Amino acid sequence: MLVENLSISYGQKRVVENISLQISPGKMTGIIGPNGAGKSTFLKGLINLIPCESGMVTWEGLPIEAIRGKIAYVPQRNTVDLTFPITVQDTVLIGTYPKLGLIKLPRKKEREIARTALKQVEMLDFAKRQIGELSGGQLQRIFIARALAQQADIFLLDEPFVGIDMTSEVLIVEVLQKLRDAGKTIIVVHHDFHKVARYFDDVILLNQKLMAHGETEATFTEANILKNIRTRIRMGRCSVMLFLEGLMHYEFLQKALLTSVIVGVVSGVIGSFIILRGMSLMGDAISHAVLPGVAISYILGINFFSGGDGFWCCCGTRNRFCESK
Length: 325
Hints:
Elements: E1 2-10, E2 13-22, E3 28-32, H1 39-46, E4 54-59, E5 62-63, E6 71-74, H2 88-93, H3 108-120, H4 136-149, E7 154-158, H5 166-181, E8 185-190, H6 196-199, E9 202-207, E10 209-215, H7 216-219, H8 222-233, H9 239-247, H10 251-276, H11 280-306, H12 309-315, H13 320-324
Parallel strand pairs: 3-8, 3-9, 6-7, 7-8
Antiparallel strand pairs: 1-2, 1-4, 4-5, 9-10
Helix pairs in contact: 3-4, 4-5, 10-11, 11-12
Pfam families: ABC-3, ABC_tran
GO molecular function: ATP binding; ATP hydrolysis activity
Protein name: Manganese ABC transporter ATP-binding protein
């Protein structure tokens, strides 16, 4: 896949700027970058799901529009209406529609393709369930199965591992790697820096502009990572903060953070009430225990919702370890 001078804007804001690169066929490529770097926008731009301001994308010399039937796209789960009354089996069957034509209905052949896809993601027993009854990991497996049913040559996935259980993540990675081994091209938007080296053959480090691109071992280096992050927040950030940002992509940890903030605030109110009632010893004990918890929760919350800038604003200083790196 050849990308030439690709630029994408939302209104007056340039999100992807003048990117040129070549994505190797038969490999698993990760699009890596901080929050707001334009990763999902770039992925959609590759297959013209959104209008591009300039540039061209071709596959083996053909415009990308000419090979749409060879492309399977898996969007982020939060774009799907889970209240829509459709079963797991029918969801996967949608993957066979592009090859059916306009007026044909799925027959035995298409249903067998859907069953095979469900077996591959270990979800055949859920075929009659409504998609709204599934967990995040189960739902992601269904979307992978729908892509498998398309029998495509190119698979594009937008944040497929966000908010899912580890069992589902391991299974999906195995499915994608088998597709790669069969000669398929896999392109994945990914956020977890700690798994990049294990998952991907090639990486694209993106931060509105192309920061680096190539084989993972040679490209996903500490220098390139810090260059990518510093471009985003104007200063280096240590591995602890990268780790915390990665954790906060998981839904259950977001809920845990929110719960800790609520508990901290409520406990602080109770502690203040006890102090005002004259129970100073107990009040001092509670306030000393609660205030650090509230502060930590508040800083973590700011860091998550501001993409990291808020942490440094609150601290007012840089981490010297990060600077030395």
